[in-house]
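User: I'm putting together a small comparison set for a docking exercise, and I want a reference complex before I start. The sequence is below, and the ligand is zinc ion. Could you produce the 3D structure with the ligand included, as structure tokens?
Assistant: Of course. I'll restate your input first, then give the structure tokens for the complex.
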Amino acid sequence: MPTKKYTKKKKQGYLDFNHARTPEQISLMKKIVEDGVCPFCKEFFTKYHPKPILKETKWWYVSENMSPYEGTSLHLIFVYKEHAVMPSEISPEASKELFKLISWAEKENELEGGSFFVRFGKSEMTGGSVDHFHVQLIVGNAKGTDKKYDKLKVKLGYKKPE
Ligand SMILES: [Zn+2]
């Protein structure tokens, strides 16, 4: 169940303004709502996404997140080219290709560690901002001994009220 702070009014089209994080995102999202499209579908992704496509395959686009999470040293997104919301809609061939792409990103960036995750389905349950299947890969920094190294924060849903 979403918190009381979540408002249905802020969900417009394929986008959820409750979960927008930066002014750049909000102004782009407003334009997309006006145009009435899904910004992650293949016909529109390159039109709206401000970062370059790093790799394109039959099923996926790989790019950087337009607003990387605070403190990350790398934040990539893997966007399914067909419109899909749930994992069950992803072609088995595409899931195989996804792992190849994650391995590609690992080698390309000489990663020593990182995390990847997918929010899917209703954004009021996940903290997602675009209702279109995409995978996120984030890399932080080695903790070291400096106390200033705080944890990366990722919203992956809402807690059940106590
Ligand atoms: Zn879409």
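The pocket of zinc ion is lined by residues 38, 40-41, 83, 132 (CB under 6 Å). The longest strand covers residues 74-80.
User: Thanks, that's exactly what I needed.
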